[in-house]
Amino acid sequence: MDVMSNVSVPLDVEAAIAHLMNFLSVEGVTGQEANIAAAVSEALKKVGVPASAIRFDDANKRIPLPTQTGNLIVDLPGTKPGPRLLFSTHLDTVPLCAGAKPRREGERIVSDGTTALGGDARTGVALLVVLAETLIKHKLPHPPITLLFTVREESGLHGARELNPADLGGAVMCVNVDGQLASELITGAVGQENWEVEIKGRASHAGVAPEKGISATLVGAIGLSEAHNAGWFGKVVKSDGRGTSNVGIFGGKGGSVAAGDATNVVTDYAFIRGEARSPELSFASQIVDGYEAAFAKAKAAVKDHEGDTAEVSFKRQAAYPPFELGKDTPVVRRAKKALGMLGIEPNLLFSNGGLDANWLDKHGVPTITIGAGQAEIHTIKEYVRLDEYEKGCRLGILMATLED
């Protein structure tokens, strides 16, 4: 790998890979993180972290979805004075990773082709354990460090959102591990607002008396068409902002696959759910305003023979805030310095997807996200690049031990 010869980072590469293989083999889809949390806790104790330093918060009690455990938090005392550093990643994987069977193929780790692998973000989980092991084994000087393993990142960044900032011990900066290339430093990300609309029409026989019905599917279709015609669907570029939007669910009761279940009945119910993203949360809200206005127009456009319209209920909720770190933010400078020592040219990126970093930054801890080899995530073609995993581990160790 492209590491400068004058930089000595004591990393046991095969041990690091063994940790990764171990964690990839432990199931822990989003909301069901108890087993992987237990595996991480056991691994940390084996590398010398005292059990008293390992704890769980109660974020799962505040998460509005069933969640087996809270966030896993580990406090490593400093061996030298300095502000506390935070290293974070997420424990959960997407459901497609259930039953993953990792195997090594040369310089990659792959699945058996029937599931995703879970490199997102088990590479981060392994890296944080490798960091603790390396600091302890080689007695490397470092300031106080907190390790954070969040839950339910994949289903809405819930663990990071419901985190109590006081549990972070006053950390002044954070390195979040949840990316592909070590050279890619994610310094900002969009915010997101979610919306949903429930349309209650009126059923009638579609052949005998269609005029007596109010088609919920037609209201929904017109609403989406209105949003599209007004420029609020897909890539959104307006004079006062930019963003994206999407419709993910158009279904029946509970968001089921079908809105209605017979062609000879005017559909009386439809449920639609979507999202809007933007670097400015106010513009994401403006996109959602556009959808709300579109469905109001659709409601007025569809009437039965007596002039009645559907009942249209539109709801919205902010999902996560956007953030963007300046190039001179201390954590950005620290990452760039560490990459320079490794002979790697940094590439600063702004993400169009949400990260735990969005909420950690909101909690008052400026957070940069680094990569450690995950690739083709959320697909059965997912794999881990071991050269990038090694670079990520070295980068993490350097960021923990750099002189200020």
Unreliable stretches, pLDDT < 50, 5 or more residues?
Answer: 1-5
Helix percent band: 25-40%
The structure class reads alpha+beta
Number of strands: 18
Outline: elongated
Give a written overview of the molecule.
The chain is an alpha+beta fold and 404 residues long. The protein contains nine helices and 18 strands. It has helices at residues 13-24, 34-46, 119-137, 158-161, 216-229, 281-301, 330-341, 356-362, 386-401; strands spanning 54-56, 72-76, 85-90, 103-105, 108-110, 145-150, 173-177, 184-189, 191-200, 234-238, 241-251, 269-278, 311-320, 323-324, 347-351, 367-370, 374-375, 383-385. Strands 1-2-6-3-7-16 form a six-stranded mixed beta sheet, sandwiched between helices. It has a five-stranded antiparallel beta sheet with strand order 10-11-12-9-13, with helices on one face. Strand 17 and strand 18 (383-385) form a beta hairpin. Helix 3 crosses helix 9 (386-401). The longest helix is centred in the last third of the chain and has 21 residues, at 281-301. It is elongated and about 80 Å long. Residues 1-5 have low confidence and may be disordered.
